[in-house]
Write a structure and sequence with these properties.
388 residues; alpha/beta; Rossmann fold; 9-stranded mixed β-sheet; 6-stranded parallel β-sheet; globular; disordered C terminus
Length: 388
Amino acid sequence: MTDTVVATGQRARLRVLVLSWRDEWHPEAGGSERTLGQVARGLAERGHDVTIATAAYDGRPRDEIDRGVRYRRRGGRLSVYPLGLVHSRAAGYDVVVDVQNGIPFFAAVARPRTTLLVVHHIHREQWPVAVGPATARVGWFLESRVSPFVHRASHAVAVSTSTAREMVGLGHPEDRLLIVRNGSDIPESLPPRDDEPRVVVVSRLVPHKQVEHAIEAVARVRRDHPEVRLRIIGEGYHRPELEHLAERLGVADRVDFLGFVTDDERDAELARAWVHLLPSLKEGWGLVAVEAAACGTPTLAYRSAGGVNESVLHGVTGYLCDDQADMEARLDALLSDRALVERMGMDCGIHAAAHSWKAAVDGFEDALVAVRTATRGRRTAAASRSAR
């Protein structure tokens, strides 16, 4: 596996189909979908023809073009997969990008050498939490056994070294695996940090994101920090349970559920916060940790979550915590030391500046060209053999 290099020179225009179960406006969208949107627009700006085939949902048309990217929305949570697979066989696409969120579209069944698999993280730990033990066994079998076999001839992209290592461990060929880290923008204008201790979470509200850890942490530190306030950005089916938890712990008056917000509103909330909590069970990269860093706010995340070991610099832009008790202790320490928060905030800005969306688009373009070049090379070799 290798890190991609910055693309140089003029590239041939490619017709690219991206298969993803959600787009960035979907009610349950997360970091993976935000990355997809940024990269797709970046590729379109460079002249590539990009189509995203994804699930349909209320609020967006079945077909639209947004900032140069064509969106084709069909099917629902499950039916999007066969519909996307059928469409991937349409003539004219140079590369099909199969975004694997647990389960891929298996586009490589029909196009093994023109499919680029994209994996944010391996769901080994998440399957039982997300779907229960019985379905988890099926999901894990598809992810750990079937997908590596189907994609054995395909190129792949991982968003972090930890994800790449897990993919190789499951059998993906290392020589066709590239690492393309997610990017981030540095906001041009941000509000100052709040005078009173403020904590923020930006997450889908689903069980494996473990947002309850943030609510429990605030309930415990409130004894020493009575003015602490937790702002939760995001939506999901787990929200009622989280609201009930806040009421049960007696902190409903200190926890604000903001739901969906605009990017500017999200950045403003991150900038006002003293600490960003990322208690997720597993993250392929942890895009929001870099987004928080871009707003000058340190992150607390779990060391065992994987990709956050790269998006959070321990002791510099935040802390990687060993368990929930460690996270609560470090939260208390940061809320007790405004000067430390400000020092980390300075380092956060330096770290975020090193991760640009341009570099991410460069990396994905390199990966697409690698797929196209390999395909042409095989066709040339086959033609040469047949001519002998």
